[in-house]
Amino acid sequence: MKILLIGGSFRLGGQGNMSIGDPRSYSEQKDACMSHLAYCKHIENKFGSKPSIFINTYDSPFVNEMIQWYSAYYHVTHVVHKIMIGYDGLVSDTVKRLDEEDDVIFIRIDLLLKPAFFDVVLGDRLSFSSVCFTLNNWHIHNGFPRVADLILFIPRRLFHLISEQKVSLGHHSYEHFINQGLGKDDIGFLLNTYHDSDSAKDWNPIYKIVNRPETAQWYDRGKTIDY
User: What's the predicted TM-score (pTM) here?
Assistant: First the structure.
């Protein structure tokens, strides 16, 4: 398996804030990185082989140190951008650089993975973490599920989506993959509950975004999805 860590590391502030490299972001970003390493160890123990890590992030005073945290234990390749190319740009840039057919999981680099994430079963379906919460009908887009956009698992059997550069990781990506020829049986979710992407707005059982507050409010407590 290849673990793909993308996004702004050592990022301070809420949604839309791109303050990169503030010393106040160091401690929580390191906590996030340690949770990624713990997940890698979990994968290694479960499957008997070490995952590899690909990092696609932005330059900061701490980025080289961060890469060393990972490379002390696992094979790491990385790209560090000096200019902002946007979240979609980081996803696209990552996809262009993958050439070894394998299971892959995109994880935004500022996510601290909670213990419940380790219990999630990665099957043979392309999987998002969840459907977005139902507040203001934000769980639906054009009649399709509106998905959380911070985690995406692509099994090896669907690697052609990567080799053909047809990967999307946004709220509207369920519809995107349907338009790329996948059936509903090809697409799933790691959770059968609704959660907004932003853990500052809606509680999430499998991750929190570091360097911003985490809410204890779960808007859709008690509701489940049937996709």
Answer: 0.96
The bridge status of strand 126-128 relative to strand 187-189 is parallel
> Residue 4: exposed, middle, or buried by beta-carbon count in 10 A (0-12, 13-18, 19+)?
buried
Contacts of 148 (CB under 8 A, 6+ apart): 128, 129, 130, 131, 132, 171, 195, 196, 197
pLDDT, one tens digit per residue, over 169-205 is 999 999 999 999 999 999 999 999 999 999 999 999 9
**Whole-angstrom distance, CA of residue 92 vs CA of residue 85:** 10
What domains lie within the chain, and their CATH numbers? 2-209 (3.90.550)
Q: Which two tokens stand for residue 85?
A: 């190319």
Tokens of 29: 């970003």
Phi first, then psi, for residue 40 (nearest 5°) are -60, -40
